[in-house]
Hints:
alpha/beta; five-stranded parallel sheet; three-stranded antiparallel sheet
Amino acid sequence: MNIILLGPPGAGKGTQASRLVERRNMVQLSTGDMLRAEKNAGTPLGDRIRAVMDAGELVPDAVVDTLIDKELARLAPDRGVIFDGYPRTLAQAQSLDRLLAAHGRALDGVIELIVDEDALVDRIAGRFSCAVCNTPYHDRYKLPAVPGVCDVCGSTEFKRRADDNEEAVRTRMAEYRAKTAPILPHYEAQGLVRRVDGMAAMDAVSAAIDRVLDAA
Ligand SMILES: [Zn+2]
């Protein structure tokens, strides 16, 4: 089973992907991780990637294709793959179709986690966490029982990600829409796109994804 998991940052894509990895013995292929690993491996290809990234340029599709090709060659044929953060362009989607076919695989589904933008802003923009033990809190939904004191470790230091504010969340949503817009029609045409409510509770989202995979 090979799938693409789509969803804006904050939709819970990472959590759902790790659950699939655990429950279905799938492998999560993140091109970002693969590029970093190759870069650090000191191979000739890794050195090329480093030069491109250091120059602040985008890694060419051909390089990403090579890495995916290598990963697919390494994987046991019965292990399913979850693609995360890739493809992002129509050209990459077409390459992926070709690479999968070359390894005797095909896509079984493109699962998009649908979110309500205003609700997502509400969920993300109030997040903060304990600076010591990382326990998550929220301005409106989960404040410490004693104001200013972590429930778990008693620390009085908290931290907040600079980009967990409304403007940054809306920018990430817009970027996501711009990135998926070119590839969704490609998969719609193949009848592969399935939409799951990403705003539901985490277990409910997992169950919905399971139903989609079972039906595929
Ligand atoms: Zn704490």
